[in-house]
Amino acid sequence: MEWIKLLNPNRFGQTGNSRQSSARSFFEQDYDRIIFSHPFRRLQDKTQVVPLPEEDFVHTRLTHSLEVSSVGRSLGKKVGEVIIEKYPELKDAGYSSFDFAAIVAAASLSHDIGNPPFGHSGEDAISAFFEKSNVGQFIKTQVSDVEWKDLTTFEGNAQGFRLLNRPDNQGIKLTLSTLAAFTKYPRASLINQRDKSRKSQKKYGFFQSEKAVFKELAEAVGLLPLSESEPIWSRHPLTFLVEAADDICYHVIDLEDGCRLGWVSFEQARDLLAEILGENYMPEKLEKTKGKNEKIGYLRALAINTLIEQCVDIFKENESEILSGEFDTALMDLVPSKKVLRDIIEVSIRKIYRSKLVLETEAVGHVVLEGLLTSFLEAAIAQKGSEDSGKKDLTVFRLLPETYQELITETASLYEISMICIDYVSGMTDRYAITLYRKLKGISLPG
Question: Read out DSSP for 373-413?
């Protein structure tokens, strides 16, 4: 791969590779487009890990995404300074370290934009619905194997790529470089040659419906094809920084949230974060900070900065192998702090992710998403000529946004109908999903 091609400022439908002479670069515009988009705003009422408690503030998908973007910008800027110095032709072409920062910041900002309500359990709920429900089993007989794989292993990353490239989201329409950096898993859902040693193949990054779109993207920015017969590519190099920004934040900030809620003791959180700092940990300075929350916040800031520096060092050491496609490991798996990071995850799983409140939310998510998908898919399928079509189905169908109704009416594919219904349900906030479910089930009346 070549940096000059990887930093492609064009958007789909544009040709040439001219730089924009304005106050904002194309990549900086990406960030602003995401900030002002409806899908991004909805993240404010989507669970990150811990449901919103009454007694204290915890992170939502929105605040998590903003923090990941902030860390991503720092990573991109620091790496960009090194790359610009190493490849003078980039500077001659008008690129700077700020372009690297803007791409990583924008891709990081949108990294969770495709996640459904109720955290990662929402992904499991959608997959389980198609695998186990009567509606899902009927759809199975009407779709291809790879389409069925999309539905039964629903992936928020692929949903995000679909969302960013949907025709009715032209207000977002990101640059090709930001779209490529956004895609952590540049492969389809069903492949026969999965290499488990490659982090980029752990999950998948685009549905069958966007396969041609991603192929065009990969060719435009110069991603390396890893198979002659299957849709698998190497990662965009800056994707490693987007992934690192996310990893840094959820390791450190989930621990901070757990401490603030009293699920993890202050002493345990302090010691874990201090271990990341190593020789730079100064307990005497910490004691000058008043309050446990302020102390943990202080350590969190230092820990994040330490991990940023460590990830930048790993990227610099492996830059040549990253460009050749040989390197395919999460940066955080190689940093000096990797052992304590594993300890943090173990504590988070035991004391946070398996807490009663989190488990209750996951259970609610399964019930609510199953109910919504059943209602809307049955109604949508009925409009395609089902003999069971009735007034109830038509009424529920009319609850869908008009653009979705038109798409369903115009398509004959059960796969695409399923994807449209998933678009609608996965785009809901936690609160709206619960409210609509209660109304559809007659548990509550419209206000």
Answer: HHHHHHHHHHTTT-TT--HHHHHHHTTS-HHHHHHHHH---
For 135, the token pair is 């509606």
Residue-wise pLDDT for 184-230, tens only, equals 999 999 999 889 999 999 999 999 999 999 999 999 999 999 998 99
Bridge partners for 90 per DSSP: none
pLDDT at residue 187, rounded to an integer: 96
Q: Dump pLDDT digits (tens) for 169-189.
A: 766 899 999 999 999 999 999
Two tokens, residue 26: 């194309």
d(CA 232, CA 196): 13
Instruction: Please tell me the predicted confidence (pLDDT) of residue 57.
Output: 61
Q: Does a structural domain hold residue 437?
A: yes
Q: How many domains does the chain have?
A: 1
Residue 232 bridge partners (DSSP): 187
Query: Above 70 in pLDDT, residue 387?
Result: no
Pair 191, 231: CB distance under 8 Å? yes
CA separation for the pair 263, 256 (Å, rounded): 10
Residue 358 tokens, joined: 């989190």
Residue range(s) defining the domain that contains residue 393:
117-153+355-447
Taking the alpha carbons at both ends of the chain, their separation in whole angstroms is 56
Burial class (CB in 10 A: 0-12, 13-18, 19+), 5: middle
Please give the backbone phi and psi of residue 174, each rounded to the nearest 5 degrees, phi first.
-80, 165
Domain at 378, CATH number: 1.10.3550.10
In a domain, 149, yes or no: yes
- For 20, phi then psi, to 5°, come to -90, 130
88 Cβ contact partners less than 8 Å away, ≥ 6 residues apart = none
